[in-house]
Amino acid sequence: MTEKEIQALITLLDDPDKEIYNAVSQTLFDKGIEIVPELEKAWETSSASSVQDRLENIIHKIQLNHIHTSLSIWIKNGASDLLEGSFIVAKYQYPDLGFYELTQEVDKLRHDIWLELNDNLTALEKVRVINHILFDIHKFTGNNSNYYSPQNSFINQVLQSKKGNPISLSIIYAVVAQKLGLPIYGVNLPKNFILAYKDEYHQLFPSGDEVLFYINPFNKGAVLGKKEIDTFLKQQNLNQDESFYKPCSNIEILQRVILNLIYSYEKLGYETKVKDLNSMLKVIKMNIKP
């Protein structure tokens, strides 16, 4: 579709006939994410508030559908890249965000840690190095003063502000660690989110499936044992479910991020965002193999 044809369709958005508007809206929607810059340009130049409202509605629908499609593709491709999954969620609020920007920020962290690592270090010593770089040098910290802010769940904002919630800090920690070849994975602990350092290199356990220890990025990378998790669950009146001690999937991590966002926007009264995020959860569930 040429630019002139797009402009001709946009001029019809002010038509009072609902059937015409619906047909035009559907045609523009079907063109997908590539047409958004033209629609945004039309919004900027339009003097009619009714046309701007309709353009905003179409743009929003296109962008949300793009998020749905991206999530489906991410899952079908194995959901192996946690950074990419986090990026897709962040695109909901920041549609112009580029993946390259995120990878550059993460690579800076990875490089700074890599300079301090060597093969002679134990697992615990490697974690101490990561903690020093992330929390002492780069000043990442838990956002206790504004804990429920949605910004704490968008990875681009956390990389920029250095403040986040347990899961966003854990995602950054795990992504960087895995890029360094370290077996550190998320653990879907209720009312918190921590990481597990697996014994993939058979340092203590023959199977390689056991957890050497746990890491709490929200508490500056404090190292925990199973007993500490037992105590935490007891304090929270929660059963000691096996899943609370084992690494979870990247899909589960992304679901937890979205649930956090839903809770944040519910507290703020943003019903449309809550509805959109629930639709993203639905897409994820539809694409998970039984």
Give a short summary of the structure:
The protein has two domains: 3-76, Leucine-rich Repeat Variant; 94-287, no CATH class. 59% of the residues lie in helices and 8% in strands.
Written overview of the protein:
A hairpin with a 6-residue loop joins β3 and β4 (194-198). The strands form 2 sheets. The chain has a 4-stranded antiparallel sheet. A two-stranded parallel ribbon has the order 1-2. The radius of gyration is 22 Å and the shape is elongated. The protein is of the alpha+beta class and 290 residues long. The chain has 2 domains: 3-76, Leucine-rich Repeat Variant (Alpha Horseshoe), CATH 1.25.10; 94-287, no CATH class. The protein is built from 12 helices and 6 strands. The model has no long low-confidence stretch (mean pLDDT 93).
Short descriptors:
single chain, 290 residues, Leucine-rich Repeat Variant, 2 domains, two-stranded parallel sheet, 6 strands
Topology:
Blueprint: H1 3-11, H2 18-30, H3 36-45, H4 49-76, H5 82-93, H6 99-114, H7 123-137, E1 141-142, H8 155-161, E2 163-164, H9 166-179, E3 184-187, E4 194-198, E5 211-216, E6 222-224, H10 226-235, H11 250-268, H12 271-287
Helix pairs in contact: 2-4, 3-4, 4-5, 4-12, 5-11, 6-9, 11-12
Structural class: alpha+beta
Can you tell me the overall shape? elongated
Residue-averaged pLDDT: 93
Strand order of the largest sheet: 3-4-5-6
H-E string: HHHHHHHEHEHEEEEHHH
| Count of DSSP-assigned helices | 12
Number of domains: 2
Q: What does the largest sheet look like?
A: 4 strands, antiparallel
Q: What is the rounded Rg?
A: 22 Å
* Share of β-strand residues: 5-15%
Proportion of residues in helical segments: 55-70%
End-to-end Cα distance, whole Å, is 40 Å
Return residue spans where pLDDT drops below 50 for at least 5 consecutive residues. Answer: none
Topology, number of strands: 6
